[in-house]
Amino acid sequence: MKVLGTAAALATGTTSFDTTGQHAVYVFNSASSAVELFTRTAADAALGSVWVPATSGAVIHLADGQGLRGATTFKVSAIANVGY
C-alpha cells in the first residue's frame, strides 16, 4: 500500500477525507472494542456504516464526494487508490 499522507483522527461531527474524485483510505481502530465507521457525502447525507474490530484496520474505497465520520479512536491515512 502506498501511503499518501499523514494519519489523522476522525470526529463524529465532521466529515473528513471527502476529496474530489475516487480515493482510498486506510482506517485503523485504536480502541479496545469494535467501533462503527460512517460513510457520508460532503452534504452530510448518511450512506452506510461498517464496524471495524478492535486494534484492526481496513482499506476503504470512496467515490467522488464521499467521506468518513467516526470516533476519535479511528486514525485514517490517504492511500493510493490503484496500483499498489
3D structure, described in words:
- This protein has 84 residues and is mainly β.
- It has one domain (8-79).
- Helix content is 0%, strand content 48%.
- The chain contains no helices and 7 strands.
- Strands 1-7-2-5 form a 4-stranded antiparallel β-sheet, with no helix packed on it. It has a 3-stranded antiparallel β-sheet with strand order 4-3-6, with no helix packed on it.
- The chain is globular, with a radius of gyration of 12 Å.
pLDDT < 50 runs, ≥5 residues: none
Q: Characterize the largest beta sheet: strand count, sense, and whether it forms a barrel.
A: 4 strands, antiparallel
Question: Looking across the biggest beta sheet, what order are the strands in?
Answer: 1-7-2-5
Class by SSE composition: mainly beta
Nearest-integer average pLDDT: 83
Rounded radius of gyration (Å): 12 Å
Tell me the overall shape.
globular
- Domain count: the total is 1
Distance between the termini: 5 Å
Helix content: under 10%
Number of strands: 7
Order of SSEs, N→C?
EEEEEEE
Strand fraction:
over 45%
Number of helices in the DSSP assignment: 0
